[in-house]
Design a protein that fits this description.
This protein is 55% helix and 10% strand. It is built from 6 helices and 3 strands.
């Protein structure tokens, strides 16, 4: 199916299939679900941030990784970069409508994982005990 096709899509004949090796949705999924991508999208859900504010919010991310992550998310249409011609220059990052929709779903997963961490920690402990520890 071409990008300019007018065929209506149903759930059974989507134009993209993340399970197919060459599908471009795989790259976007990697950008969204990677550690820095998901944390960046989650952080931007609440507010727009300047680069260094965002770097402080996403504790542990290097300047280089945050820059690469923001570029990938901007290229995918999830993040908007606004450069203001001030002295010194000011650059703000915020989610696009698509980015907000993705971040909303990611935050649901983040909150689920956070709320179930006692179970995860118990499972890890049990696993380590039966496997001789780590």
């Amino acid at each position: 199916m071409t990008a300019d096709s007018t065929q209506e899509l149903t759930g059974d004949d989507l134009a993209f299939n993340v399970f197919a090796r060459a599908c471009p949705s795989r790259g976007t999924l990697e950008h969204v679900t990677g550690k820095w991508g998901s944390l960046t999208l989650g952080a931007l859900y609440d507010a727009s941030f300047r680069f260094n504010e965002l770097r402080r919010r996403v504790d542990g991310v290097s300047e280089k990784m945050l820059s690469q992550t923001l570029q990938a998310l901007e290229r995918d249409g999830l993040v908007h970069r606004e450069a203001q011609l001030t002295n010194p220059p000011r650059v703000d990052y915020e989610l696009t409508p698509l980015g907000r929709a993705v971040a909303e779903r990611l935050l649901g997963l983040i909150h689920l994982v956070e709320s179930r961490m006692p179970e995860v920690l118990a499972a890890r402990e049990s696993y380590d005990e039966t496997r001789g520890g780590r």
